Amino acid sequence: MKALVVYDSAYGNTRQVAEAIVAGLGPQAQAVSVTDFQATALTEGDLLVVGSPINGWRPTPKITELLSSLGDGRLAGVKAAAFDTRVRLFIHGDAARKMTESLKAGGAEIISKPMPFYVKGSEGPLRSGELDKAAAWAADLLKRVGG
Predict the structure, then answer these.
(1) Which of 13, 80, 88, 147 is most open to solvent, judged by the fewest CB atoms within 10 Å of its CB?
(2) Residue 82, C-beta contacts closer than 8 angstroms, at least 6 positions apart
(3) Cα–Cα distances in Å, from 35 out to 6, 31, 43?
(4) Domain spans in the chain, listed from the N-terminal domain onward
(5) Mutual orientation of helices 130-144 and 13-25 as an angle, nearest 10°?
(6) What H or E segment, with its residue span, contains residue 111?
(7) Which secondary-structure segment (H or E) carries 7?
(8) Do the Cβ atoms of 57 and 98 come closer than 8 Å?
């Protein structure tokens, strides 16, 4: 099993979380920018983690386009999870939930609830402890895929 953590990042915060997840998943994992991702790299049994900052209450357009291209069962046999980076507000979007729904619609087996990671202000940096939280989430994902 290989693990791909595909992300889009405006200010580097989502990229940092993706890299922390990769470190927690181990040597079979790789962080890939959404612009560099090749769907043909995925095979049955792989883990796909998708991350995006919240952009207008939803994932970024690039992530949304990628997930749309993976619909119609193209993710059958792939295990998946999603995360977003967001500002801690009373009301905010939920990009991770929307991405999870898209992954499921593509045929992926969802192995974790959507995970938020928090930034200070609209551009960051990440709040204290968020990279540790990402590493812990990665360890949980690894257990769920049997790694």
Answers:
(1) 88
(2) 49, 50, 51, 95, 96, 97, 99, 100, 103, 114, 115
(3) 9, 12, 19
(4) 3-139
(5) 40
(6) none
(7) strand 3-7
(8) no
pLDDT of residue 36: 97
Q: Is 40 helix (H, G, I), strand (E, B) or coil?
A: helix
Q: What is the pTM of this model?
A: 0.96
Q: How many CB atoms are closer than 10 A to CB 92?
A: 14
End-to-end alpha carbon distance in the chain: 8
Residue 103 neighbours by CB under 8 Å, 6+ apart: 48, 50, 67, 70, 75, 80, 81, 82, 110
pLDDT in tens, 98-130: 999 999 999 999 999 999 999 998 899 999 999
Structure confidence by residue, pLDDT tens digits, 17-39: 999 999 999 999 999 999 999 99
User: 3-139 in CATH: which number?
Assistant: 3.40.50.360
